[in-house]
Amino acid sequence: KYGLALCIVYGCRNIRLESEISVHEFPSPSAKKLRAAWTRIVQRTRDKWRPTSTSHMCREHFVGDNIQNKM
Known about the structure:
about 70 residues, two-stranded antiparallel ribbon
C-alpha cells in the first residue's frame, strides 16, 4: 500500500520506508485551509513551491500529536 515517499521540506532527508519518522500525503485540494497551511510551511524555504499529487511531509514538521497542528 505504501511506497517510497520523500518529505518535501527543504533540507529534510526523511524518507518513508527508510526512517522511523512517519511521512504523510498532503491534504487534498478540497481541504483548502489545511492544504494552504501545509504549503506555507514548505514555502518558508521554497518560495514559489506548490503541492502536487505526490507531495508529502514528515512528522518532524508537525506540532504535538495532531497532524493538523502545524509549526
